[in-house]
Amino acid sequence: MSDHVAIVTGGTRGIGAAICHKLKGLGYTVVANYGGNDEKAQAFSKETGVPVAKFDVGDYDAVQDAVARIAEEHGTVDVLVNNAGITRDGTLMKMDREMWEDVIRVNLGGCFNMAKAVFPGMKDKGWGRIVNIGSINGQGGQYGQVNYAAAKSGIHGFTKALAQEGARFGITVNALAPGYIDTDMVAAVPEPVLEKIVAKIPVGRLGQAEEIARGVAFLCGEDSGFVTGSTLSMNGGQHMY
Ligand code: NDP
Asked: Which H or E element spans position 148?
């Protein structure tokens, strides 16, 4: 059991919701952030008892205000899971500047904004856990996703750099790179494309959000104190280094 306070960005759906369930079950006080889907967030909160906080992780000032309010209400944030993410897919030829900037701002900028807000409190406490959700497509690239692959690849670099800064304060910083997981994000992939993707996954299926949540829980816990700057790949064997 843990008495730590955790924020999970994009915690009201998909992988984030599974992470919230898992951490709450382990005794963490969990707050789930979300971006705009109020109906989904309220339903999630009602079902799980997890409080929700609406703010755009890509908006620096909004993040600082929201995290300060959460800390006031629940206590210093000990655990941050940077999970919020979006896709705006298209080949370079079809990708406009807005599609590029949106994805970099939310997926990568969100990690910076959130880390800025929680790092000082963790440093003062001498303990903290930051887990950044990367992607198999940040590791290997993906056709039609120069924005998403760049942002996710950036998360892996961000993780390794911040891990070096956090280590002497008892703060670990790790990334978890999921493969294809059965969520709304993957449901948006056209069926024929998805069939080809699944055919390339050695275990022969999509991953489940709960499986990712178990990996995140390890990286958030006391037992992972010697793990920092690492990337845990959970992809059914689709991409191996
Ligand atoms: P979903 O699309 O199911 O959920 C995304 C969550 O992020 C929602 O809660 C959404 O809130 C929130 N969100 C989106 N934009 C913002 C924003 N600007 N500010 C705050 N919250 C925001 O995603 P998944 O569960 O599929 O993915 C979760 C993470 O895992 C993402 O980072 C994704 O890139 C990564 N990932 C997913 C894979 C997969 O196969 N599903 C594979 C590899 C990585 P709202 O409901 O309000 O829109």
From this structure: helix 146-166
